[in-house]
Amino acid sequence: MAGSSGRAPARVARRPAPxxxxxxxxxxxxxxxxPLRRFHTRAxxxxxxxxxxxxxxxxSSLLLTVLGLxxxxxxxxxxxxxxxxxxxxxxxxxxxxAVLGTILxxxxxxxxxxxxxxxxxxxxxxxxxxxxLVQVPGIGxxxxxxxxxxxxxxxxxxxxxxxxxxxxxLWGADLLARKQDKRLxxxxxxxxxxxxxxxxxxxxxxxxxxxxGTAIILTAILFGLLWLAGAPTRLxxxxxxxAALICVILxxxxxNRMARLACIGATDPGPGDQCWQAVHGIYALASGGFFGSxxxxxxxxxxxxxxxxxxxxxxxxxxxxxxxxTLSVLALFAALGYAGIRVAxxxxxxxxxxxxxxxxxxxxxxxxxxxxAVLGLLPIAGVPLPLFSYGGSALLPTMFAIGLLIAFARQDxxxxxxxxxxxxxxxxxxxxxxxxxxxxxxx
Length: 443
Description:
Elements: H1 35-47, H2 52-82, H3 89-110, H4 113-118, H5 120-134, E1 140-143, E2 146-153, E3 156-158, H6 160-181, H7 188-192, H8 195-208, H9 212-228, H10 233-252, H11 255-262, H12 276-288, H13 313-346, H14 350-374, H15 392-411, H16 413-422
């Protein structure tokens, strides 16, 4: 060809086709899942598992008991030394009660529901007998102005009114369950009789000793059982009005209770230091900050705050462990309350529903009253923080009640199947280890 240089034309390299992004006509990429939505989905699946209530009840009660033992030791050291006792005196008594309570918990969680129902009447009869003995001179003892104790010998005393809570829950649940089976709960007289008269009898025996805090908890249990039984609004309001009227009369006729009512929200001890305990409880919480002054470093337990290891142990917890510690305790109680409501709501057995609801009402109401008094939002009622405060008479029935909740959680058919699948299979193997087969020439 004329004018050509004789060279072959250079080849033009092809460039790779550009990858089209999603949304420009190519294959679309799968949308990314929202992390919050994914977390919510996983959390919801975890809450819906059949063993969730079982683990929540067992885990939260165990953590509360262990943390309570630690705080009892920390809060009671100074008071024990002031009484010329060993520093671990109150801790050792609480530890013995925790061991006995653990045995009761394990027994209760292994007992069938029929046996729990069979024990309702004997527990009620024994409790009423002991509460009558409290008022007998020479047998009953007075502590902080309340005649509610029986001396057992040595350093041990028993408060039968604490067992009255368990007795009312078991007996009331069995009574309402039998009446529901006979379809009698549609009539208000069957709903109230004999539940309300027996509850008022227990309240009367408790108020003879002057312990209004325990009476309030017993009243809360009664209302919880009536609410679970489906009491109509008029009946519920009527019983509540009668109880409120009696409560007002009891408060008005007692200068001590009137003084406690006047200390709600107090920021100054007032005349005669009548609000000393309430104010110093607020001081303990305020000085703790976010993470506290450190375990054992409380200043209020050095004689400033009365009852630091019993009614006001939550204040010492806030001072030593801070806001983080108190919120952790409240979260554990919230988890325990949620699990109890879940057990009561998912069962088909009326006795289990009433008993689980009664126990949940008991523990949550007592925790709210104790914490509310420490925060200055409620009057000081003198009730311990469940599973946490010092006091074997309160710890033993509470741990038995926790065993009830665990037993009820295990009774769920789905939970039974899940527990059966997780039981380890025992295999009998020889002590010899398996080794690879060697050739005939090796030894």
